[in-house]
Design a protein that fits this description.
Length: about 425
C-alpha cells in the first residue's frame, strides 16, 4: 500500500478531503514516523478516535496478516529478540526487533518499548500496527499496543532462539546468533553520523559460507583465526552484499570448538546469482563475450579514484591522473551475463606482463589501446571461472573479481596446456 492508497482509505473513513490527508501523511512520513502512527495522528487531527482506527483490531493467524491490516492482535511464540539503538525523530532510542511465530508462519516485529518478553515466551500482542517492509508485513509494537503473557505455550514448528547459519542470513534479519571463525579483521576509523568513529570490519565464516562483518564497538578480541559465538547480530546490505553487524548489544563469546571453514566459494549459475540481488564470494563460470572500453591501461583521479575520461574526473575536473590497470569483461553462461571487474594484479596476470611493461608497449605503439587489444585477443571467446563479490545496480550486475582463471574443464585450456607440455 503506498501513501496515496493510505490517504484514500483515511479520507473515505474520515469523510475529509484526500489531498489534505495526503499532505499531512507525507509531512509525518518525511520525519520518519511509521505509517500506522502517522495515520493515527491524522485520524486524531480530523476527529477520528485515533486509537485503533476505523475498526477494533482483529485477532489473526500470523500467516493471514497482510500490510492492508491497520492493526491486529496475534497470539505468538517469541522466536528472537534483538536490541538496537536508532535515531528516531532526532533522538537516540533503543528498540527491540526479531521474529514472532505461531503454527501458521513467522513475522518480523519492532517493539518501541521494552515489554520484557524473551525468546521462548508465549504472548498475546494486542493492537499491533502492521506495516510493509521489503514486500512483507511487519508488526509495530508501540505505545498503543498491549503485551500479555500466555500460560499455555503457543505451538510452532519454527526454532526458538535465533541461531542461524551464515548462508541463511538475509538483509533485514535481526536478533540472530551465529558461530563463526574470523578470517579477516581490521580496525578502521570512519566518518560516521557522530563524527569520527572507530569500527572493526572484516570477514567471518562458518561451515556454510562467509560474510563480511562490521563491529560498531570495535572489539579488539575479534582477531583473525579465532572462533566466536555472536549473540544478537543484525544483517544489512552493504555495497550490494549482506553484512553481519555487531552492535553494543551483541555479546561475543570465544568458542571451545573449531569452526570448520570451507575455502571454496559456492558455484552458481549467473541468472540465479544475479536474481539474488547481491552475493558475497560466489563462483561463476562462463564465456568472455567482450572486453569493455575502459579496460587495459587507465588513469584514475588521485582524489577520488574514479577512472578519468580524456584526463577529466567527473567530480574533480582536470587532474594529474594516476596510472592503473583493470579489465571489465562481459561473461555469459547461457543463463545470464555479468561484468567481471579485475584489479591491477589480475590484469597484469592476464596481460602476461607488469604495468611498466604495458606502458612501454603503449609508448612504442603510441597507442594505449594496444594493451586492451592484447587482453581481448587472449580472453574473448574463452571460458573463465570468476570468483568474487557480486552486486547488482541500475547498470547491471558486476563481480569484483578476486580470482579469474581459465575454467579447468575447458577443452581449449587443456589443449593449450598440452601444447605447452609438448613444446617443453
Ligand atoms: Zn576525482
Amino acid at each position: 500500500m503506498d501513501v496515496d492508497e493510505h490517504a484514500e482509505e483515511l479520507a473515505s473513513a474520515l469523510g475529509v478531503d484526500k489531498a489534505e490527508v495526503r499532505s499531512d501523511l507525507e509531512n509525518l512520513l518525511s520525519y520518519s514516523v511509521p505509517i500506522d502512527e502517522a495515520k493515527q495522528s491524522v485520524r486524531r487531527k480530523h476527529g477520528g478516535d485515533g486509537g485503533g482506527g476505523d475498526a477494533t483490531p482483529t485477532t489473526k493467524d500470523v500467516a493471514d496478516v497482510t500490510p492492508e491490516d491497520g492493526n491486529v492482535t496475534v497470539t505468538v511464540r517469541v522466536l528472537s529478540v534483538g536490541q538496537r539503538s536508532i535515531q528516531y525523530q532526532g533522538e537516540e532510542q533503543v528498540i527491540r526487533e526479531g521474529e514472532f511465530a505461531d503454527e501458521t508462519g513467522t513475522i518480523s516485529y519492532t517493539a518501541w518499548e521494552d515489554f520484557g518478553f524473551e525468546p521462548g515466551d508465549s504472548i498475546t500482542v494486542g493492537n499491533a500496527g502492521v506495516r510493509e517492509w521489503d514486500g512483507r508485513p511487519e508488526l509495530n509494537v508501540g505505545q498503543s499496543s498491549t503485551v500479555a503473557v500466555e500460560t499455555t505455550p503457543v505451538e510452532t514448528p519454527y526454532e526458538v532462539g535465533g541461531d542461524s547459519d551464515l548462508v541463511d542470513l538475509r538483509s533485514g534479519d535481526r536478533g540472530r546468533n551465529v558461530e563463526v571463525r574470523v578470517l579477516e579483521s581490521e580496525e578502521r576509523v570512519i566518518d560516521g553520523r557522530d563524527g569520527e568513529t572507530t569500527i572493526r570490519s572484516g570477514v567471518v565464516a562458518d561451515e556454510t559460507g562467509r560474510l563480511p562483518f562490521t563491529d560498531w564497538k570495535a572489539r579488539s578480541e575479534l582477531r583473525e583465526g579465532h572462533d566466536f559465538r555472536f549473540e544478537d547480530v543484525y544483517v544489512r546490505e552493504f555495497r550490494g552484499v549482506p553484512q553481519v553487524n555487531l552492535s553494543e548489544f551483541t555479546t561475543v563469546t570465544p568458542l571451545a570448538r573449531d569452526v570448520e571453514v570451507d575455502d571454496e566459494a559456492p558455484r552458481m549459475g549467473i541468472a540465479e546469482a544475479v536474481g539474488s540481488g547481491g552475493l558475497f564470494d560466489v563462483e561463476l563460470v562462463g564465456n568472455v563475450l567482450e572486453v569493455r572500453d575502459g579496460s587495459g591501461l587507465i588513469e584514475r583521479c588521485p582524489e577520488c579514484g574514479r577512472v578519468l575520461q580524456n584526463g577529466q574526473c567527473r567530480s574533480h575536473g582536470d587532474v594529474d591522473g594516476e596510472d592503473d590497470m583493470r579489465v571489465k569483461a562481459i561473461v555469459d553462461d547461457g543463463t545470464g551475463t555479468v561484468t567481471a571487474v579485475l584489479d591491477r594484479d589480475l590484469t597484469e596476470e592476464l596481460y602476461g606482463g607488469t604495468m611498466e611493461e604495458a606502458m612501454t608497449a603503449a609508448r612504442d605503439a603510441m597507442d594505449k589501446e594496444v594493451v586492451a587489444d592484447e587482453i581481448r585477443e587472449r580472453i574473448v571467446g574463452r571460458e573463465y571461472r570468476v570468483r568474487g563479490n557480486l552486486s547488482v545496480d541500475d547498470y547491471g550486475a558486476s563481480v569484483e573479481a578476486s580470482e579469474f582463471e581459465r575454467a579447468s574443464d575447458d577443452p581449449g585450456a587443456r589443449a593449450t596446456a598440452l601444447l605447452a607440455e609438448v613444446r617443453s
